């Protein structure tokens, strides 16, 4: 089980809207200059993701929850997203190269196969996202933000 903490945005009728912060690991390793993740993180301005998770326990906005997702579903979705365009690219490129015997045809086949593989992955992802074992679940719930209050006293307040 892969775990991550999220913040509750809202809770209505058994459905929690959660916000997960995107973590960039760029500050924690020494190879900052040649890191591909650092470059990709700079491209997208999105710093958080919002998702909806079923939850029977009433939650308060600002409350922290621990989410979990099965490793199998994460690996399966990564394989679907990365491998289907790649396989489509190679197969259609080889097919066009064999049929038309030109490099231009192979390039066009590669483009068509990559886009086709992406569309296939997109169609399958909609079907797979409906599976219950592919959904994130709430593993634990932290205290609401207003449940704990700490008062400090200065030495001048003791008199």
TrEMBL record:
Keywords tagged on the record: Membrane, Transmembrane, Transmembrane helix
Source species, domain of life: Bacteria
Transmembrane segments: 74-96, 102-121
Pfam families for the chain: RseC_MucC
Keyword Lipid biosynthesis belongs to the record: no
Record flagged with keyword Transmembrane: yes
Record's protein name: Sigma factor RpoE regulatory protein
Organism: Buttiauxella agrestis ATCC 33320
